[in-house]
Amino acid sequence: MSDPSTIAGAVLADTAIEADAQPRGARPRRALSRRNVMLYGTLIVVALYYLLPLYVMVVTSLKGMPEIRLGNIFAPPLEITFQPWVKAWAEACTGLNCDGLSRGFWNSVRITVPSVILSIAIASVNGYALANWRFKGANTFFAILIFGAFIPYQVMLYPIVIILSTIGLYGSLTGLVIVHSIFGMPILTLLFRNYFTSVPEELFKAARVDGAGFWGIYFKIMLPMALPIFVVAIILQVTGIWNDFLFGVVYARPDTYPMTVQLNNIVNSVQGVKEYNVNMAATIITGLVPLVIYFISGKLFVRGIAAGAVKG
Amino acid sequence: MNQMATTTTTPSVSVKDLDLAYGNLKILDNLTLDIAPGEFIVLLGPSGCGKSTLLNCIAGLLDITDGQIWIKGKNVTWEEPKDRGIGMVFQSYALYPQMTVRGNLTFGLKNAGLPKAEIDKRIKRASEILQIEPLLERKPAALSGGQRQRVAIGRALVRDVDVFLFDEPLSNLDAKLRSELRVEIKRLHQQLENTMIYVTHDQIEALTLADRIAVMRGGIIQQLSDPKTIYNRPANLFVAGFIGSPAMTMLPGRTVDAGGGVGVDIGGPVVPLAGYDGAVPGAGREVILGIRPEHVTVHPDQGAGIPAVIDIDEPMGSDSLLWLTVAGHQLSVRTTADHAFTHGQPVSVSFDITKASLFDRETEQRL
Amino acid sequence: MATQRPTRLFHNLSAKIASIPMILTAVVVFLGGTIWTVLYSFTSSKLLPRLDFVGLDQYRRLWSNSRWLVSIENLAIYGVLALIFSFVIGFVLAALLDQKIRFEDAFRTIFLYPFALSFIVTGLVWQWILNPDFGIQHVVRGLGWESFTFDPLYNADLVLYGLVIAGLWQGTGLVMCLMLAGLRGIDEDIWKATRVEGIPMWKTYLLVIIPMMRPVFITTLVIVMSGIVKLYDLVVAMTGGGPGTASEVPAKYVYQYMFGAQNLAQGFAASTMMLVTVAIIIIPWAYLEFGGKGRV
Fold first, then answer.
1. Closest CA–CA distance from residue B132 to any residue of chain C (Å)
2. CB neighbours (10 Å) of residue C123?
3. Domains, chain A, with CATH or none
4. Label partner for A254 (CA 20 to 30 A): which of A194, A200, B261, C33?
5. Domains in chain C: boundaries
6. Residues 62-81 (B) with a CB less than 8 A from some CB of A
7. How far apart are alpha carbons C9 and C15 in whole angstroms?
8. What pLDDT is stored for residue A51 in this prediction?
9. Which CATH number is associated with domain C52-290?
10. Where in chain B is the domain with CATH 2.40.50.140?
């Protein structure tokens, strides 16, 4: 680059620079750069590993048995039939009776809905109490609650059997509702407590100055503000309770089995010819509820596990 | 745009016709800027004016849409930051928390494969200049804000580069630390004589540190000059209002013929423009007269100037800031603290027109 | 506005009453239940609980029971593999997703959806895919490799790997989410600093970013390990513990002896051992996190 010491020199220098127009502007980037290929390539391959089972489930459930026996599980159905779905829902045998998954489905519903309502109602109030109203021993109880979330359920299984038998609820749907509510409390209380501690204390103080008491503040101020967290809590609980197996198998009787237990019975304990398409249809139906919730709630679901997973 | 062009030497950093746009949104608009070697230039402006963006473009951390960047005579428009000969200091210090101060300083050098002797030499030099020798074995968490910032500067120093980039380095510090470190940075510049490009929204930092200031707004450089010129002859209304605290008083009015010359009618009283340092327009022009508080004199005698009424007194230690009402406008005046003015007192004011600025009401440019 | 000044007892009382369910649950179920089980593990209860102390008898039997020892070994192998791979895969996926790519939401949805499924569903689906007569083995053989063998669920030496494949499919998404949240919490200026210094990306991740993410790693570790210890549903659905006892796990052992073999005290002893294992993981972590038990 020449030193322009005269105006002519300056003009010359400028044109020299103009001729030196490259490089200029944005860095050249090819869409198919090595970085992009590796990045997207890896992601797509991994995505396929994740999507494969879903695909296989759906495809198998839509085929007739002859096609399955002859064919390839990865091949799409030549002839789509919904018969397996009907059979799974209404006719599949679980060893004791043959009215399909529908019974388990309704059991699951009757277990999940009250459990969700009960556990969230209790946990939100408890979380609120812990966040805003300090009383002696509150933190100790909370610590015990949290440890309860981590210790293996096996250690508390039998005492609960005794408790439920004593009050005559062992084997009933109500018993399961109580069990799920109990075990849902730690994570949910933590969730609500964390949320309510992040609410500015000024709001709480202002309400106290206005004369509101414990329940008044809860219903008029905290509850309306916490709606997003309620949604997260609902998602967490519905998914957790619907997918549970252990409690279903320990605390339910065959006529009160939730869907997961029934599913396992249908697939794994059937004698004779295995109807793989029916099995896969049954599997999908069982997974459908939490899956739909997941796809609808997307970001909230992520927030839910992060909240459930992150400690205080 | 005034430019003190030093075309006899190669600029240290040169920005040519820089454009940065995201889709239709233009962040930086056709910027051209030449920075001389050893110059301390400050990019000053409010949030969102594009100053940090410009700095990141010069650093190579952001891709530009059009234009070129030259550093030390080399076209670095497509170069990675590490190949541009720059060192950078960030607002949040960005020190590596898991490493000691020494580790922070040596990380980049080790990565570049420099021999141990060279690394030790540079560490010694940097820690002496910045007085961080006793801190070398500590971790960032054990340092104060001011110490952390010095280590951050040290990290740029050991890179042995010509150009230093500062991205609002003092904004995270409290007021006292800020003024201490401000002096240290100025001392550092005097000692090292490197080119320094400094981004801030604080006009005090700009006025005290800069050889030249580029006042930016909306992605465009409003004025590029030394601090004195920017303060005394602001190029437009925005620069005039942004620089100077307390702010310049803006009196809207219209030019009229008065007593053999031109004056500004500010809604009754007329301010004569004799002695104005600029182009005095003809009569009938819509203008804004800008005058700084220290260039207004208050007279207890009502006849000695334009009539006004004392409104509020803000005592500030050695000075007082008086707020007056003049022809329906608010006017601020700086005076000594031991004045005898009281609220509601009728007074008169006179202006030092040689220090005033006149702006066209429509174009907002200084006349 | 006159406000009735609540007495100290009153407003505490309301909160106390509202907290009764939590207190009851914590004390009766969690604390009481655990103590009860541990207590009765020192008895010889068979079909019904009986309070006759036999000292460490149940534990002696437990630790000389080959089925128990196998289940511990199995859990350890599964645990190590699941932990390592879920961390590596989870972190890599999170790092990839952190690159400001397009379709980030779509990818994250795909990686995470298995987490919404029950372990039973997961186990059954993978059981089907790994089915030697119809699944992968059959398909690959059909493509020409006649002697290709891939039936981990029928091979006592390989069955654990089959479980790991399914377990990773289900659980890695969670690890990825946690890691991604951790990555997003890193100050952007750190990235700029390393770029200006010319540090290559892999070095930045290894020497700067990962050390900065220590808290996230620890939390994730605790969560993953707690989940691994509880492994039960997946085994029931996928292998039933087989072939033989090749995929037995402690949780299944507990269920078997408590409700199947009518040997309550054995079940209690086994579950106490599970508790001890978890305690060894949790207590040091809780101490580090909360600075002493009881203060959350």
1. 20
2. 28
3. 1-29 (no CATH), 31-81 (no CATH), 102-309 (1.10.3720.10)
4. C33
5. 52-290
6. 63-68, 73, 75, 77-78
7. 10
8. 92
9. 1.10.3720.10
10. 249-360
ipTM of the complex: 0.82
Q: Are A68 and C134 spatial neighbours (Cβ–Cβ below 8 Å)?
A: yes
Domain with CATH 3.40.50.300 in chain B: 13-242
User: Nearest chain C Cα to B95, which residue?
Assistant: C190
How many Å lie between the alpha carbon of C35 and the closest alpha carbon of chain B? Answer: 42
AA identity, residue B327: A
Domain B249-360 CATH assignment equals 2.40.50.140: yes
pLDDT in tens, C24-66: 888 888 888 888 888 888 888 888 877 888 888 888 888 888 8
Q: What distance in Å separates the CA atoms of residue A161 and residue A179, rounded to the nearest whole number?
A: 10
Q: Between B and C, how many CB-CB pairs are < 8 A?
A: 56
Cα→Cα distances C39→B12, C55, C58, C261, Å: 80, 10, 12, 20
CATH architecture label of B13-242: 3-Layer(aba) Sandwich (3.40)
How much is the pLDDT for B3?
A: 46
Could you tell me the pTM of the whole model?
0.83
